[in-house]
Amino acid sequence: MGLLEDLNQIHTEIVSSPQQVDADTRRHFWRIVGQIKRQPAPDDACITKAAEIRDLLYEERLGKPRSLKWLFFWFLCGTLGLFYYVWLALFNLQPTGNFWVDLFWVYFYPGALVAGIVFLFYPFGRLIFGKALGIRLDGITRDIYYLPTLKINYTTYLKASPPRRQWFFFFAGYWTAFTALWVGTIGFVLGGEWVGIAFGLALAALETLGAFVGGKWGGELGHFHRERQIVKDWKRNLETK
Question: Which pTM value belongs to this model?
């Protein structure tokens, strides 16, 4: 049985009972997706059907995405948080001499604030690099960790070359560390606040582990790690085509 026939069979099974798709069917589907990704010239019909199935599984697990227009709200909240952080760094993060107060106010509180700003600006990494690499986004949703993200349009994703998919996840992943670093740099330059920079460096270190060591990790850099392996297979398939 060919890939398209397998996909049609899986699609029929999912449509009939989307809440009762067993683990074996899901694994079989993702193995087919892996084969499509590795092909030098994947069949458009297979891509379309795989995207339909993925959307059914996605919405059954995480719900339908909201309009990208809601990103304005995220941007506004992130910008207000940034101004508040700058205000704190300029005027209100001076040590008091009390160990416990300083532990919270001078170290924990600004770090939590920078983390909140990263949380709000995180989806823009996918938006910017998806636009640059030809991968559309369908709307705002959450990921499996209940963090905000943008749902990938799977048809454009599968039609993108494996290197483009790889770099999409790489840049979207490091966007969080980049955000923490530039926000922290502003706080350091204006008020000598260094926790934001430390938070950014810690994020970069963790993301590097996910990208180059921990392929089973989740998140953007876990996806990047797995896409790197696909790129290697795809290049071998190109050579033998």
Answer: 0.88
